[in-house]
Protein: Thymidylate kinase
Amino acid sequence: MNKPRFITFEGIDGSGKSTQSRRFADQLRAQGQDVVLTREPGGSPGAEEIRQLVLTGDPERWSPETEILLFTASRRDHLEKTIEPALAAGKTVISDRFADSTRVYQGATRGDLRAMVDNLHKLMIGREPDLTFIIDMDPATALERGLARKSGEDRFEDFGLGFQETLRHGFLALAHANPDRCILIDGNRTPDQIASEIAAYA
Ligand code: ADP
Ligand code: MG
Structure:
């Protein structure tokens, strides 16, 4: 048996992470792989509870430092309860967002706390994905898609175009700094075109 893979999808809000992670999971399942499709923030019962605490929409609720601790606690629970057990059982794990989102979002909002993010990751998480798809695209189009989406599954669309542009550059920098695991995907295409490029990594 091949080593079970931990695969993540990253990118700005509206770039198609949820769409493409579902499609890739469906494809791998159709090929007979046992796949756990999960997401952050959340992905385990405890982490989903912490998600509700963090994503209050009230910027005064937590200090930036406390918010990073909550994201780390949530990720630790996700790792312990969902990701590690699935990998140990030989399953493929696909996560819609993971640690790169914290790196990029905290780097964009509080660049001075980036060392804290990295130190906590080393101390409490330690795991990096085997493969990360970073979906890169025009922020204006991504914002339109995000606003058009009905489910409200993600709060990040509230931040506006300038912030999306900053995040985009954060994800691009991260992709270039981690070429061993990051694949840059052009999201300015139809879902079918994007899925068929990603399908080559099955
Ligand atoms: P994310 O999870 O990155 O925020 P989603 O997968 O939820 O993005 O996609 C945002 C919205 O755009 C959804 O309504 C989705 O159906 C739509 N969408 C996703 N990919 C594409 C695409 N390649 N072209 C046009 N619309 C898309
Ligand atoms: Mg999503």
